[in-house]
């Protein structure tokens, strides 16, 4: 496959889209004093209650120190707590606090608003195909 890098630079297009999503998401999350990265961690913890920090970093394709700083911020805000891992006394698992759990639906609604804006004019089939292709590219790059 040949690429016209001036017109179809995949890296540029994906980076621009990511930057725009973060900008809009930042505006939506500002009222809760959250960054898009913090919101992403909260959503992962919602789906993976009791995950280790190491596993969370792997799932999010971020390094452990970066995830650690995000967790520390969320702990100081009262959104996340660390608990001793019952399987390994040296390790911790991450859990949402009751406050964070109560806010999940509201935060998800804000995220949904952003995606509704982003997907305006995109059909469900186009969206599914976009996700399928991006996931395929991600798998190719992780090999």
Automatic annotation (TrEMBL):
Keyword Transcription: yes
PANTHER family assigned: TRANSCRIPTIONAL REGULATOR, MARR (PTHR42756), TRANSCRIPTIONAL REPRESSOR OF EMRAB OPERON (PTHR42756:SF1)
UniProt superkingdom: Bacteria
InterPro entries, per database record: HTH_MarR-typ, Tscrpt_reg_MarR-type_CS, WH-like_DNA-bd_sf, WH_DNA-bd_sf
Keywords, ordered alphabetically: DNA-binding, Transcription, Transcription regulation
Gene Ontology terms, MF aspect: DNA binding; DNA-binding transcription factor activity
Pfam families: MarR
SUPFAM superfamilies attached to this UniProt entry: Winged helix' DNA-binding domain
HTH marR-type domain residues: 1-139
Name under which the protein is recorded: MarR family transcriptional regulator
Record bears the keyword DNA repair: no
